[in-house]
Amino acid sequence: FCSNNVVFGRKYRFRSSESIVNEIELLINEYNAKGIYFREDLFTVNEKRVMALCDEIRKRGLDFDWECESRVDTINEEMLTAMKGSGCKLIWFGVESGSQRILDDLNKQITLSQIREAYRLCQRVGIKAGASFMIGVPGETIDDIQNTIALAEELKPEFAWFNIFTGYPTSPLYEYVKKNKLYDKEINHGILIVKTNEFDRRKLEKIQRYADRKVNGYMKRLFRQAFLEVKKGTLTRQKVIRGVRYLLGG
């Protein structure tokens, strides 16, 4: 379901802490940036690198808020404390499912216990945690989806994204989806708009809206989405109208 290795490959290039913070200083001094979003799937994969970056930010006396993306099995309290001290306000985790069976099918290589522990640590340190979830995974049942929604309510993330499984070439389960024709159509570059034996696409979209409303609530969803769009400078009247219609189930 993840396309990053298809788009970017599996090579990973590190930048030095000095180089990253030099760029941040430029953004703050020249463009009056107030916050930074580190768009990196595994920001915390290298603890030594994270600690060095946090130290460099503190050493230069920079004061800005930042967010990042991470895996629940790559954090610890010492790292989170350093991140908090250098301005980290929120971490996004790919939780995906409240069913261990589905997590295993997705080859996430994480456990429900690790998920709960990661959110507990973030709460203890004082960093907010967001979450992304996946529904419509081949073989998923309504009980699995209910477990996912229940886990989202238990974790109480700052915000929860509920995504419908999409088949990307070379990603886990892609060949299974294609061989068993578990998709409504194929779009650009072989991407599959997936359905399952249990749920057609329309049903999945209905469940997606239900989960979104139940966990996030109407206004929380609206304000969070608007906040993100404002930060990116991409908020338009049409997007506001489309977002309200989505929340209303239209």
From TrEMBL:
One Gene Ontology CC term in the entry: cytosol
Key words, A-Z: Iron, Iron-sulfur, Metal-binding, S-adenosyl-L-methionine
Alphabetical list of Gene3D superfamilies matching this protein: tm_1862 like domain (3.80.30.20)
Domain Radical SAM core: 1-214
Keyword hit for Metal-binding: yes
InterPro entries: BchE-like, Elp3/MiaA/NifB-like_rSAM, rSAM, rSAM_horseshoe, rSAM_sf
Pfam families reported for this sequence: Radical_SAM
GO molecular function: catalytic activity; iron-sulfur cluster binding; metal ion binding
Needed co-factor(s): [4Fe-4S] cluster
Name used for this protein in its record: Radical SAM core domain-containing protein
